[in-house]
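Hi Y.,

Following your request, here is the sequence exactly as I used it, all 47 residues.
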Amino acid sequence: MEETLWDSANKLRGTNHKNATYRLNVKVQYGKVVLIDFGNGGSVHNG
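Below is the corresponding structure, written out as tokens. Let me know if you'd prefer a different format.
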């Protein structure tokens, strides 16, 4: 099973015009994103 874990730093500018930086852990299998872990107990996954 080909699996890669990525650590991503992201910047977001909200409607209040304040910037925020947050980190996500992204799991990729066979070239497709299968999990995005927000690190606060929240995640999005495929399958």
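The two ends are 16 Å apart (CA to CA).

Thanks again,
Q.
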